[in-house]
Design brief:
This is Peroxidase. With 321 residues, this protein is mostly helical. It contains 15 helices and two strands. Strands 1-2 form a two-stranded antiparallel ribbon.
């Protein structure tokens, strides 16, 4: 168990990196003052058309940051010489929203050619998605630049990390300067979004720490065999509203994923008190969440002359295919 923890923490160290870059909320104030309004208007259109897109855009930013830093690498298409991150095991068939980023980038390139990075688009779109779904807002530091290559191998190493238990994950985040509160707050992103049957099947048929009526309702759409891609909302109460219902559900043993329910055991677990607080105090959750998202968005970004500002988020500048 100790060796497994060490391995997973090492993987987190590689993926997250150890530096928090200096960014500025006023980075585009002269070079592209309309950047925020353009991103916001496109996010509003996308979420109004399809509610699940808000969670999808939030997830894109998180996954981008967790794999080699917030550098827009998640957006790169496969090429003849390199495979992108979208087909990584942690992303397979579950990462969407690329067309929304394309639409935002196209408008920004018309308004301010070659100025706003794809990594910054992801960060602002995530914030605006949360706001559109009823959640908190925050000031987003900007100035990230884009990577010229994807990190497929690093993406694949995320799988054993996120399959670890809650203590492993808390420890890994702690190594990168995140408190237990920040870890739980970030987990609250699951108040919106969907999960595929293959990731919760075992829990709804075998787990003891799940409300039986809730489990039965999930079994109807997630048979013991087949239906791997059938989905269920992670927050069954308000699946497309960013609120604290996710934590309320955990206290009722209605966590969809095993990793979610581990946050609240009801037996004095390491994060029980935090979940209980967030379940009864939505503002406390919102305040902690906003701060934690800003923090994760600063991890191992490219700035200055490092990286580039892609003109097309799907490929590096100068790439032929």
């Amino acid at each position: 168990m100790a060796s497994s923890l060490s391995l997973q923490c090492c993987l987190i160290s590689i993926l997250f990196g150890s530096a928090f870059a200096q960014l500025s909320e006023n980075f585009y104030v002269t070079s592209c003052p309309q950047a925020n309004s353009i991103i916001q208007s496109q996010v509003k259109l996308a979420v109004a058309k399809e509610a699940r897109m808000g969670a999808a855009l939030l997830r894109l930013h998180f996954i981008d940051c967790l794999i080699g830093g917030c550098d827009g690498s998640i957006l790169l298409d496969d090429t003849q010489s390199a495979i992108g991150e979208r087909t990584a095991l942690v992303n397979g068939n579950s990462t969407i929203g690329f067309e929304v980023i394309d639409a935002i980038k196209a408008r920004l390139e018309k308004a301010c050619p070659g100025v706003v990075s794809c990594a910054d688009i992801l960060a602002v779109a995530a914030r605006d998605s949360v706001v559109m779904l009823g959640g908190p807002s925050w000031t987003t530091p900007l100035g990230r630049r884009d990577s010229t290559e994807a990190h497929k191998d690093l993406a694949d190493t995320l799988v054993p990390v996120f399959l670890g238990d809650v203590n492993t994950q808390i420890g890994a985040f702690a190594m990168k300067g995140f408190s237990k509160n920040e870890f739980v707050a970030l987990a609250g992103s699951h108040t919106v979004g969907l999960a595929r049957c293959q990731f919760y099947r075992k829990r709804v048929y075998e787990a003891k720490n799940i409300d039986p009526t809730y489990a039965a309702s999930l079994q109807a759409n997630c048979p013991k065999e087949g239906g791997d891609n059938n989905t269920a909302p992670i927050d069954s109460t308000t699946p497309f509203v960013f609120d604290n219902a996710y934590f309320v559900n955990l206290m009722k043993q209605k966590g969809l994923l095993n990793s979610d329910q581990q946050l609240y055991t009801g037996k004095g677990g390491p994060t029980d008190a935090i979940v209980a607080n967030y379940s009864s105090n939505q503002q406390a959750f919102f305040d902690d969440y906003a701060k934690a998202v800003v923090k994760i968005g600063k991890m191992e970004v490219l700035t200055g002359t490092h990286g580039e500002v892609r003109t097309n988020c799907r490929r590096a500048n100068g790439a032929t295919n």
